[in-house]
């Protein structure tokens, strides 16, 4: 059986594609998200609208991200909330919770 990667702390880097703030109906810790492209990415990322990683963060991390702009290269640490998928026709990005940039 494969080990469930949820809860694992990852340290990754990638290029910031965008920032989404004040997501509706989200708990405080996941109210905002950084959309990150990783290189090399997963096969599904030929469709550039799908980021490799959706990195959630709460208002407590806002100071760390406020000066970032799309196209910036970032290194981040996050705790994996949901691992990505790229098989069976169902494609989804990795979803960590930001701990540190």
Short description:
By secondary structure, the protein is mostly beta strands. The protein is 4% helix and 45% strand.
Description of the structure:
The structure is a single chain. With 101 residues, this protein is mainly β. Helix content is 4%, strand content 45%. The protein has one helix and seven strands, in the order E-E-E-H-E-E-E-E. It has one helix at 62-65; strands at residues 9-20, 32-37, 53-57, 73-82, 85-87, 90-92, 95-100. The strands form two sheets. It has a five-stranded antiparallel sheet with strand order 3-2-1-4-7, with no helix packed on it. The longest helix is centred in the middle third of the chain and has 4 residues, at 62-65. 20% of the residues are buried.
Class from helix and strand fractions:
mainly beta
Largest sheet: 5 strands, antiparallel
Overall mean confidence score, pLDDT: 83
Order of helices and strands: EEEHEEEE
Adjacency order of strands in the biggest sheet: 3-2-1-4-7
Radius of gyration, in angstroms, nearest whole number: 13 Å
Strand-residue proportion: 35-45%
- N/C terminus separation: 33 Å
The rough form would be described as globular
Number of strands: 7
Measured as a percent range, the helix fraction is under 10%
What is the helix tally? 1
The unreliable regions are none
